[in-house]
Recover the amino acids of this structure.
């Protein structure tokens, strides 16, 4: 399991540092990131990656958002599956975002979405809007 997490973190770090993000503007001089994921379990390597980037970049580390969408969106309403990640995300400076479109499509009770998570109407649109603002993006 440790090998899987380490490999995932290494892959994500390599991806972010190896691909030039041409044509994108950074308005605040900081490195901002957005990830789109379909599985709550992927939050573990994502948060580890955010922690590593924050340590590496220091003051240049900006906003880091993780958009959760897809058919497993209901997992965010299960405290046993999500609460640990919410705590880790807060400490790492990671904002967890729920896709409202997925919540509606898969009939997830929005009142059970943790209060510390943000909900957007459309996670894919939100991702594109952040990319237009210069955020580096990846989907898992």
């Amino acid at each position: 399991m440790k090998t899987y997490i380490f490999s995932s973190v290494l892959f994500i770090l390599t991806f972010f540092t190896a691909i030039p993000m041409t044509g994108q503007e950074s308005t605040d001089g900081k490195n901002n990131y957005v990830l789109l994921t379909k599985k709550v379990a992927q939050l573990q390597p994502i948060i580890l990656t955010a922690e590593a980037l924050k340590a590496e970049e220091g003051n240049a580390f900006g906003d880091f958002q993780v958009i959760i969408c897809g058919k497993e969106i209901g997992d965010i309403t299960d405290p046993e599956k999500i609460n640990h990640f919410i705590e880790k995300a807060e400490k790492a400076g990671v904002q967890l975002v729920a896709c409202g479109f997925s919540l509606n499509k898969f009939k997830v009770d929005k009142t059970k979405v943790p209060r510390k998570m943000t909900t957007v109407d459309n996670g894919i649109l939100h991702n594109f809007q952040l990319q237009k603002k210069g955020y580096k993006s990846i989907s898992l």
